[in-house]
Amino acid sequence: MRTAKTALGLAALLASTVPASVHPHVFAEARLDVVVNPDKTVKSLRHLWRFDDLFSSTVLVEFDKNSDLKLDDTELQEVSQTVHASLAEYNYFQLVSVDGKDVAMKPPAALMANYENDQLIILFESEPKEALALKGKVDFGIYDPTFYTAIDYTEDENMAVKDLPASCTRAVIRPDPDEAISQNQANLTDAFFNDPAGTDLSKIFATKLELTCVG
């Protein structure tokens, strides 16, 4: 969306050389559903993001073309198309890795936008570019490399797996920010705090669904 483009474009102004000044300005609650194929490969990731009232109201003002204080189907379509285009270069904020190595995801064909109870809701489904077997340590999550948007899972149950194989155990990892900074101090240079998106290290702060699979 134009609002999202503006937010992401301003990200460089939000960073500083001290960690305390790197902080989000847009907040969303999320749900993630990992869908697994019978052969124990990942079929898809289903994402739902529910944005805070303040940001949602900003979107309403910007896209409510007929000024009726709601978003009709045409306006919601414009929201979804603009969000889709805006987040493409950020891989739609997805974090997917196997044993610490990033996994490439196909761009979602489209996003769906809803506006309910004064909140913007974004839904989309994505698939791995190549077969993703549930073997080793497989992590899933969401993070904004610019630090402008905080999308998090308020309950562990909001990170779910449909048909989790018996060979896998599930855990939700919520990194402590101070510990994450301490453990990665050597990599968190001034360049990171001046331009988080340029280093992609902000993923160390992301909440992750971690599947540990054997066999």
What is shown here, in short?
By secondary structure, this protein is α+β, with helices and mostly antiparallel strands.
The SSE string, one letter per element, is: HHEEHHEEEEEEEEHHHE
Query: What number is the mean pLDDT?
Result: 84
Strand content is 25-35%
According to DSSP, the number of beta strands is 11
Q: What structural category arises from helix and sheet content?
A: alpha+beta
Instruction: Detail the poorly predicted runs.
Output: 1-21
The coarse overall form would be globular
Residues in helices, as a percent range = 25-40%
Sheet with most strands: 6 strands, mixed
Q: Calculate Rg over CA atoms.
A: 18 Å
Q: In whole angstroms, how far apart are the ends?
A: 44 Å
Helical stretch tally: 7
Number of domains: 1
What does this structure look like?
This protein is of the alpha+beta class and 215 residues long. The chain has one domain (2-213). It has seven helices and eleven strands. Strands 1, 2, 5, 6, 8 and 9 form a six-stranded mixed beta sheet that branches. It has a five-stranded antiparallel beta sheet with strand order 4-3-7-11-10, with no helix packed on it. The longest helix has 15 residues, at 73-87. The radius of gyration is 18 Å and the shape is globular.
Topology:
Layout (H helix, E strand, L loop, with lengths): L1 H8 L1 H4 L11 E11 L5 E10 L1 H11 L9 H15 L6 E5 L2 E2 L9 E5 L2 E8 L9 E7 L6 E4 L6 E4 L5 E6 L3 H7 L6 H5 L1 H4 L8 E6 L2
Parallel strand pairs: 1-8, 1-9
Antiparallel strand pairs: 1-2, 2-6, 3-4, 3-7, 5-6, 7-11, 10-11
